[in-house]
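note to self — DONT lose this again. spent like an hour looking for the file last time. sequence + predicted structure for the chain T wanted, 81 res
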Amino acid sequence: MYSLADSVSLKEDWGHSSNVMGVELCQMAGAKKLCLFHHEPVYDDARLEGVFHETVRFEEITRTDKKLDICIAYDGLILDL
């Protein structure tokens, strides 16, 4: 729901994960895809895009084996499982 900066400062006790935590959990679980969803309502499209790019960059610099495919949810998104 939040960027790492928000999750460890302003929203620390709100009970939601950050984008970085999502990447780390997926890497530990060996997941193939991460879809960011349940966005902070006050984030506009530009802010959400920034969180997405931050997430992709974090995955790139912490990748140990296989690439984690990352997407960001939007109204009407259909995912093939």
